TrEMBL record, chains A, B:
Pfam families named among the record's database cross-references: Anoctamin, Anoctamin_N
Domain Anoctamin alpha-beta plait, chain residue ranges per copy: 22-148
All copies of domain Anoctamin transmembrane, residue ranges: 181-628
Residue spans crossing the bilayer: 189-216, 222-239, 296-320, 332-354, 419-440, 501-524, 551-575, 587-614
Keyword Membrane: yes
GO molecular function: chloride channel activity
Name under which the protein is recorded: Uncharacterized protein
Coiled coil start-end: none
Location of the protein in the cell: Membrane
Record keywords, A-Z: Membrane, Transmembrane, Transmembrane helix
Species, as recorded: Apiospora kogelbergensis
One of the record's GO cellular component terms: cortical endoplasmic reticulum
């Protein structure tokens, strides 16, 4: 991959990066040497399934001698258009689009051309949708398709080069930049960048304020904690609004209502849907609930393992710092940090995998439900790994409080050291893990493979596998390269940012420079994440989304929890060493609880006010939606009102229906038929038409006035 | 009105109650003796406006010699139908109806006949809508129409008789009963009865549990408070779901999105809407905000006035109970109760009027915004009048705590006495005020008027105002009777129930029999409210609604606040007299805060769980909506897919497009034009069609397998 990096940097533009050969997707099909026959049969089925779904295919040699690459494109552009048209109509039916789709198909695509993301998504659905929905029904790595290693679109390197170049030379990203990502990688990825950019812009304020606080107010400042908490409310509420706005602008608002079934879902039995009559796959809710209950022991295990680890490190730290006096003391003090730095990410990964397996076992019907459940678990893991150390430190302070005054004084500093570690060191370590390690890893693997292949070639007499055609060789080498890249998972990036937001909202009162560090980190993060997608990941499947999804709840929770934690921290440590610590513990407890209670309710009140205030503000997305809705209503209403209903009250008889000649004659006829008519008819025939009603009314009024006058006289 | 009551009871069915003479609405038009000429001119304009809006009118003598009654019906049934059709289409456009309206108007009304409520609502809109929207633009009591005293529909006495008879002979009401109300009086009133019925049914549980608690656990029981709080959560969440369900069943879900402009709204200037281009009436947000800020002094005034009153009564109570030893002591102890009973309702009414004026001054554009603002203020008034007395009592206990042990012991009992007063006595007083006083008031007024009229008649020589026609006399007498009835305001009834719910959630731990009293009260309330509408009120305008509106927030707030207050009460008084009160106050404060904090968060957690649980449950309304949505989608999708787009991937070429002869020829032609074709074309021409791809792939696979085998050997 280093080659790509060099190419981008050197402004090279070799032909193999200039074209994707009209390939929509590449299927990496494994040929394990122990099951060649089975794999061969599966390959035949694969090509047949693709063809039946309307996809053209080409086959080439794979990454090494253990796979083939199947190149896929849509056979008929017209058919793809019909699928896209159908999806747009479906969007409209689900209320995602407001404008009624034109009946003229060509006009639709003229008004709103197909972007790359839309095309690739539709082709991917053609590949993976079940056969009864017109797809090829391919489910990578499972069942019939267990040898399908991966399905991925090819990077558009022309775009990627421009993108990376642009972003590395500009300080502030705007909406257009995010729109570009959306057209290329879909809304799900675009939402991440939009969120990160908003968060980054918002960070400028706490960074500036934090820096000023650090200079003027010092640590554990009431004012800083308060302003920081208010900021987190404003940011959270702002983002909720912004998110909605973007969804409307991108035409994906409410797209989460259109659920994509998970192919990995396993059902107990099929049942007829009471509403639609279609067969529905049913999985027992009780069984799922039982699996879901495993989350409780899961959370406890997380807490236990990580708690034990932290406790151990603390013990080591105290032992070395305060009891141990042997050799290498100055080096040994780093031991706990090294242990933590080494073990926490590993443990997080293990627990993350466990969370994934647990979610898999919960067996959700749809992608969204699955993602939400997984996100929730990952959030719990991260919450525990990231934030428990602080509770230990705080605990330790509380318990050691009464031992010696000197001991109490050093503790807030330890808390600060920890925050600095987690906000600066950990971010750098994380960056290294994320950006550098995968490249190294790939290099090593590549070397190993090369040696293996060389060894294989040495042993055989002549190459039996035909070589690539020279005009394709460079292109195929590039595709083989992309096939070996990691899959980009946007959840990892969200997780990192949400954890960071949590630090900011929970602990930044301890060290007000934290937001400054985050600001710098996120500037780099924005660019390194772009690099990660462009250079060290397969091109992501361009999924749609109308929000950052379950992470929104995590942000809201952290913002609220921050009001509790930061107020408690400030209360406990804000005074000088003889402050609250000097008074009896019962009073402190009382006041601490009162502080937390007040802070929480102040938080809720502010949230209410900010929400109300933001709702009053102008929103371009909502404006657009309103305009479209109005247009649609006017059109349809105009159309419907062409019917044979009377739309004017009485077009030709301004003085009332009753006095037209025809009406009079009709009445007379009716009356003659039924004798004197019903009492109702008699009632309404007393005054014939408007003028008579007026004259009788006026005479009544004047008579009444006269009577009243007489009465008064 | 007693006459109606007797008639209903005696099973009399006189002809004047049998027919409404096809009258849709009656306008009571005042003729003040000091402005006869002006009133006469206004009358002429009235009849003209009615006629122009497509309404037929008849005029008769009014209630006495100071008004005329204008009877209104729609002149053309066809025109009314077109208005109703138009409204149904509008509902569909706003997403209120899911089913696409039929193009055939007659079919629509066959499928879904017009009910009374719909008809009357549409006619009322014809009467009151501005002229540019096709209405007559009548705004009672204001501006041009200041002599229009009231506009009201006539009661359907046949229905009312059946209704009252049914309800007084059955214990439990079902959905059909509420549906009947909906068809007759509209969704807004029906929602009240549905709510009251649900609340009544739910009350059975706390009543039974409360009775058991009272017998076994005594007052201030932890268990009772906990169960009661859980119950309030369950009820609140249940109602939210039920409400949505009813809205779907009644086809009014989302109807609050269709806003009715307030005719009383006064605008600063007109402006073009940026979206629709239509003229919009604009009122300065800043000016409104300034008026809204008056709410703060308003709330303080309420608190001050009522606080002073309560303080006074307490002082009197203590003076009489503990210091005064003069004559009539046993009678004088009732003095505070009498003062409170007499003054609180009066003060509430005054403050309620003040709230109405304040809301009027805030000058909202729409009815919903106006109602929400008014409800909020009324809730504040009621919150203060209803619940502050307890804080005084609790306060007094806290302050007197340290004086004497004997004093402390009697205090919980005083609190209980107060709860009993407010839950039993006040309910009875309220019932009397609501049901008995209006009847008495009307009787007295009637007598006075009769005497006046008699006196007037005596003075004049012969009646100059023509008498009623004998066949109409009874009917007109009945209408005059109805014209003098009060306007039914559903907000008053909601207020009463919300305040009651507040007692239950806040204070019922003090006296667990409270829910029993409420259960009995609400059984009567359901019937007496029905009687109030049927007998002592004008028939209400059948407005639509999709919820109980702002009262829902009030319920939610009280339920949450109840978790705080009841936990605090139980904590303070649950121990025996030497319990928490005996320990140092700082510990008590600490523990009290912890209790409240825990209770609140337990409450929030339970709410979350209950909400989740209820969401999993089946809902008939949602089921119906889903079915309709599915049907609509299927229809439209089938319609749209008739277009000329290709819907099958490749109907006739199952083995891929590329190997048909035509395709081959075309390719050859293309290639000959451009020499050897583009690299992309060359790439896709390497394997011609599915079969070739398969055979080449298979050969690749077997060669690779062979190579691997050689390598291994």
């Amino acid at each position: 991959m280093a080659s790509l990096r060099t190419l981008y940097a050197a402004d090279g533009n070799p032909p193999e990066l200039r074209t994707n050969m009209n390939v929509d997707f590449v299927i990496n099909y494994k040929i394990p040497s122990e099951a060649t026959v089975e794999a061969e049969a599966g390959f035949t089925q694969l090509i047949q399934a693709l063809t039946k779904a309307g996809l053209a295919s080409e086959v080439r040699r794979g990454v090494d001698h253990t796979s083939v690459l199947v190149f896929v494109k849509v056979a008929s552009e017209k058919y793809l258009k019909s699928r896209i048209y159908r999806e747009r109509v479906q969007d409209w039916l689900y209320g995602v689009r407001i404008k009624t789709p034109e009946k003229d198909v060509d006009k639709i695509f003229e008004q709103e051309p197909i972007v790359d993301a839309e095309r690739l998504r539709l082709v991917y659905l053609l590949l993976t949708n079940p056969k009864n929905e017109g797809g090829a029904g391919i489910t990578p790595k499972t069942g019939q398709w267990k040898y399908v290693e991966s399905i991925f679109p090819l990077h558009n390197h022309a775009f990627n080069r421009k993108w990376i170049k642009q972003w590395s030379s500009k300080y502030v990203l705007n909406e257009e930049d995010v729109d570009q990502i959306r057209n290329q990688f879909g809304e799900k990825v675009a939402f991440y960048f939009a969120f990160l950019q908003s968060y980054f812009s918002f960070l400028v304020f706490p960074a500036a304020f934090g820096f000023a606080s650090w200079l003027i107010l010092g640590q554990y400042s009431w004012l800083y904690a308060l302003v920081n908490s208010l900021w987190s409310v404003v940011f959270f509420e702002y983002w909720k609004k912004k998110e909605l706005d973007l969804a409307v602008q991108w035409g994906v608002r409410g797209v989460s209502r259109i659920q994509l079934p998970r192919t990995a879902f396993q059902w107990d039995h099929e049942d007829a849907d009471p509403v639609t009559g279609e067969a529905v796959k049913v999985y027992s809710t009780k069984k799922r609930l039982q699996t879901q209950l495993l989350q409780v022991p899961f959370a406890f295990i997380c807490l236990l393992i990580l708690g034990a680890l932290y406790l151990f490190c603390f013990s080591v730290e105290i032992f070395i710092g305060e009891i141990y006096n042997g050799p290498f003391k100055s080096y040994l003090t780093f031991l706990p940090t090294i242990i933590l730095t080494g073990l926490v990410p590993t443990l997080s990964t293990i627990l993350g995998n466990l969370a994934e397996q647990l979610t898999e076992a919960e067996n959700y019907e749809t992608h969204d439900a699955h993602d939400a459940a997984l996100t929730q678990k990952i959030f719990v893991v991260n919450f525990i790994t990231s934030y428990t150390p602080y509770s230990f430190t705080a605990e330790k302070i509380s318990s050691s409080e009464e031992l010696t005054t000197q001991n109490f004084q050093i503790n807030p500093d330890r808390l600060r050291t920890q925050v600095i570690y987690f906000t600066v060191t950990a971010q750098i370590v994380n960056f290294a893990l994320e950006a550098v390690v995968p490249i190294l890893k790939r290099k090593v693997f590549k070397k190993v493979k090369e040696v293996q292949t060389e060894f294989a070639h040495k042993n055989e007499k002549g190459d039996v596998v035909p070589a690539d055609a020279p005009e394709e060789a460079a292109f195929l080498a590039r595709v083989r390269n992309e096939a070996e890249l990691d899959v980009y998972d946007v959840a990892t990036d969200y997780r990192e940012m949400v954890v960071q937001f949590g630090y900011l909202s929970l602990f930044s009162a301890i060290w007000p420079l934290a937001p400054v560090s985050f600001l710098i980190n996120n500037w780099v993060e924005l660019r390194s994440d772009a690099m990660k997608i462009a250079i060290s990941s397969k091109r992501p499947i361009p999924w749609r989304a109308d929000s950052i999804g379950p992470w929104l709840n995590a942000l809201g929770f952290l913002s609220w929890f921050g009001s509790l934690v930061s107020s408690a921290i400030v209360f406990m440590f804000s005074g000088d060493s003889n402050g609250p610590g000097g008074e009896p513990s019962s009073i402190t407890g009382w006041a601490l609880l009162l502080t937390v209670l007040c802070a929480e309710h102040l938080y809720l009140a502010v949230q209410f006010a900010v929400r109300y205030g933001l709702n009053q503000m102008h929103s371009p997305g909502m404006h657009k939606e309103r305009a479209e809705r109005f247009q649609m209503r006017r059109n349809i209403l105009a159309e419907t009102m062409d019917n044979d209903v009377e739309t004017k009250p009485l077009p030709d008889i301004p003085t009332g229906e009753k006095i037209t000649r025809a009406a009079l004659e009709e009445e007379a006829r009716q009356a003659s038929i039924r004798g004197h008519g019903t009492p109702e008819e008699a009632f309404w025939q007393r005054q014939q038409g408007m003028d008579e009603t007026i004259s009788i009314g006026r005479s009544l009024i004047s008579k009444m006035a006269a009577a009243n006058k007489t009465a008064k006289a």
